[in-house]
Structure formats: structure tokens, C-alpha cells
Recover the amino acids of this structure.
């Protein structure tokens, strides 16, 4: 399969994060409009957490915008969207390594990678970022946003995912395994936001 339109590969990361919206929009807006709506909702959530993550706010927002680009048909290689998306981003000139690693590992992707026989590849190529708050923040944004970009609880989100994919699917098995970790991440973000006086 071809790598995709050359304009994607030439996309340059800028300090304002505009590049991330342009790239994700080109990949998702037309081909996967509901996924694009979810993406915009996750990004909006990330912006609310900007006071909490401080100087990493643009990193979080860029990762939020880009976290699902691996679903875009031109990027699919393994069928595991965190890995496909991160591998593609790695080839985007000047893309921040932190953003790439957040995309690769978002929402406990390593646990799903294990279900798919891709754990070693993911862990070796994209080690988990050593920034627990930033990692938790992306989990929070992804797992409290509906497929249409609205807010919901993490409990509702996991139920929705399980209903959509089926309990016995790879994703369903992953969700059962990851659920305690996802809820814990959400709780940590809520607690940190409360301590910092950040409204969610």
C-alpha cells in the first residue's frame, strides 16, 4: 500500500500545534467523520487541562488531535491504530518525540498490543513516556469523550466501546483488562485538577 499523499510526509511541526490539526483533518475529516468528531472532542478536553500540565499543554493537545490517525486508511499497516499512527508520525519531519510516544501508548495501548501479539514491537519502538501526569491526561481526554465528541464518564465510555466491538473481541478483552487502569488514570487527573483548582 502506498505511503499516502506526500503532503502528509512533509508536514512540519510548529510550536502552535496547527500542524497537528491540519494533518489529522486531512487524514480523518472526510474518510472517518465520526472519528474526526471524537478527535476534536478529545482535543477540546486537552485544552481544559492546559493549566494542569503547564508547559506540556501543546504536547498534550497535539497528541490528543493525533491519537487516532492510525485509523486513517492510508496509514493502516498492522491494523493496530496506536502503532500505525505512531510509526507514521515518526516520519513527519520535526514531530515531537513526546507526541509520538503519547500517541503510540495512549489509553493503555500496550495492553491491547499484547492481545494482538504486538507488545514487543510497541514497547521497543515507542517506550512509555516518563511523565505520568501527561500520560494520565491523554487517557482522561480519550476515555471521557464519546465517539461524537461529547463528554461522558469513563464507565460509560468503556461500556460504549465494549458494546460497539463485542465482549469477546480483541478490543473487548483489552477493555476488561485495562478498565481498572483507565479508571485510576481518570481519578488521578480529577484529583490533580481539584488540587490545582482546575475545573473539569
Amino acid at each position: 500500500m502506498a505511503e499516502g499523499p506526500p503532503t502528509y510526509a512533509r508536514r512540519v511541526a510548529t510550536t502552535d500545534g496547527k500542524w497537528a490539526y491540519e494533518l489529522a483533518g486531512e487524514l480523518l475529516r472526510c474518510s472517518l467523520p465520526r472519528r474526526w468528531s471524537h478527535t476534536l472532542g478529545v482535543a477540546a478536553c486537552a485544552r481544559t487541562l492546559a493549566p494542569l500540565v503547564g508547559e506540556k499543554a501543546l504536547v498534550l493537545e497535539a497528541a490528543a488531535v493525533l491519537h487516532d490517525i492510525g485509523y486513517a486508511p492510508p496509514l493502516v499497516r498492522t491494523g493496530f491504530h496506536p502503532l500505525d499512527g505512531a510509526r507514521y508520525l515518526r516520519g513527519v519531519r520535526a514531530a515531537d518525540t513526546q507526541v509520538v510516544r503519547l500517541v503510540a501508548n495512549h489509553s493503555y495501548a500496550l495492553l491491547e498490543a499484547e492481545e494482538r501479539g504486538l507488545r514487543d514491537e510497541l514497547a521497543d519502538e515507542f517506550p512509555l513516556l516518563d511523565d505520568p501526569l501527561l500520560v494520565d491526561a491523554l487517557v482522561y481526554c480519550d476515555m471521557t469523550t464519546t465517539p461524537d465528541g461529547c463528554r461522558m464518564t469513563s464507565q460509560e465510555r468503556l461500556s460504549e466501546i465494549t458494546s460497539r466491538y463485542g465482549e469477546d473481541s480483541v478490543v473487548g478483552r483489552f477493555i476488561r483488562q485495562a478498565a481498572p487502569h483507565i479508571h485510576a488514570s481518570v481519578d488521578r487527573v480529577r484529583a490533580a485538577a481539584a488540587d490545582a483548582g482546575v475545573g473539569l
Observations:
- The two ends are 42 Å apart (CA to CA).
- Residues 6-196 form one domain.
- Residues 170-196 form the longest helix (27 residues).
